[in-house]
Design brief:
- The protein is mostly helical and 156 residues long.
- It has one domain.
- The chain has 7 helices and no strands.
- The chain is globular.
Amino acid sequence: MISNFEKALNRDELPEYFRGSGIYFTKDPDWGTQLHVINWQGLCGFLKTQKNPVATLKNAFEKYLKTITNSMEDANDLLENIGCYYYMRKKIPTLSENGFDLIRDLSNNEKQIISNCMEFLHQEIYKTNNAQDIETYNRRMTKLANDGGPNNFRSL
């Protein structure tokens, strides 16, 4: 059986896969939103079968990054994907093979895309001055850092 990630790879639909749009949407039963971690579990299952899983992941994520805009939807999806990577990285050795780090090993240009988008998200969340949104954002950032992700997206 072909996995959704393999399908996205074959169809060149990697941005859709990482966003969880169209056929790659996996509904969170509690919130009805995209449940990114399910897609990451499928991605990891596929990567385990590859001869060069790190290159496959890096190339796929780079294609996704090229489509990122400074919008709340893209920023939230990007943060979720980065969070899923670091969460899964602790469980799946393939994701950190030979010291590989998906975010830290990107080109400076790709890191800048992430930094700009995460700065946009930070500004938009704090601009609303909604205590619940700010608390949720801060929790997400703390969890990401605790899972081994960057502490500060402004200096990737």
